[in-house]
Amino acid sequence: MDEQELRDLLAGVQSGKIPISEAVQKLKTPHFDDLWFAKIDTHRTLRKGFPEVVYCEGKTLEEVVAIVDRILADEHNLLATRASEEVYEAVKQGHPDAVYNKRARTITVERKPLPKKGGKILVVSAGTSDMDVAEEAVVTAKILGNEVESTYDVGVAGIHRLLSQSNKLLEASVIIVVAGMEGALPSVVAGLVDKPVIAVPTSKGYGANFGGVAPLLAMLNSCASGVTVVNIDNGFGAAYSASLINHLMEPPEKR
């Protein structure tokens, strides 16, 4: 159930077209669907504006397909993350309109695109090797109803590349900065702009990168104001937060 469906239900009760007993029964329905191995949150759209997102790693093909089938039975849109091509092929058999982003490892179904929010999210990556995480952020932000732009391989090793993108930095409402190695880029970006910066450390780097721990600590210790840090390789989490920020920047009547 989403907000519009709830409004329609209440309007039906108000007009007398829907009996109170029927409305009560619908509202008494459990807020999750128990598949034994997964409990699908059926009111996630009502609370958050988008259905429950499926994290595919660690699940069997059959489990992912069952979860996707249940979500799409009631919802118009779907996002699944960390999906292999094998998972995509299994999902596509039942849902031919499913789209796979190989770089991001995401599966999306977008049957009713969300209205575009007012601002723009910019996704920046330090290196080409960080693009898989950056693309996960792009796909997530787009399906959540945001205008999204990206610019890649503009890390601090050649700072002129970043400075050449100054127009994009200044036009964005929220900036997601993805970086591995020493993780310096978010501090540089945050020092140039007056908007929220969400930093995403990646596991890309040599031994002392410690699988992303080095850039994570560097970002947490940033001296630049306005930097918020998410977990290692969590492009999805960064984009979800950026989308919420972008939404709250809109006038109340448009939310």
Top keywords for this entry?
single chain; 255 residues; alpha/beta; Rossmann fold; 2 domains; five-stranded parallel beta sheet; four-stranded mixed beta sheet; 11 helices; 11 strands; 40% helix
Describe this structure in words.
The chain has helices spanning 3-15, 20-28, 44-48, 61-74, 85-94, 131-143, 159-163, 166-171, 185-190, 213-220, 235-248, and strands at 32-34, 39-41, 54-55, 77-81, 99-101, 106-110, 120-125, 147-151, 174-179, 197-201, 227-229. It is an alpha/beta fold and 255 residues long. The chain has two domains: 31-110, no CATH class; 120-248, Rossmann fold (3-Layer(aba) Sandwich). A five-stranded parallel sheet has the order 8-7-9-10-11. The chain is globular.
The third-level CATH topology of the largest domain is Rossmann fold
The low-confidence runs, each spanning 5 or more residues with pLDDT under 50, are none
CATH class of the largest domain: Alpha Beta
> How many β-strand runs?
11
Give the N-terminus to C-terminus distance in angstroms: 18 Å
Please summarize what this structure is:
The chain has 255 residues and is of the alpha/beta class. Helix content is 40%, strand content 18%. It has helices at 3-15, 20-28, 44-48, 61-74, 85-94, 131-143, 159-163, 166-171, 185-190, 213-220, 235-248, and strands spanning 32-34, 39-41, 54-55, 77-81, 99-101, 106-110, 120-125, 147-151, 174-179, 197-201, 227-229.
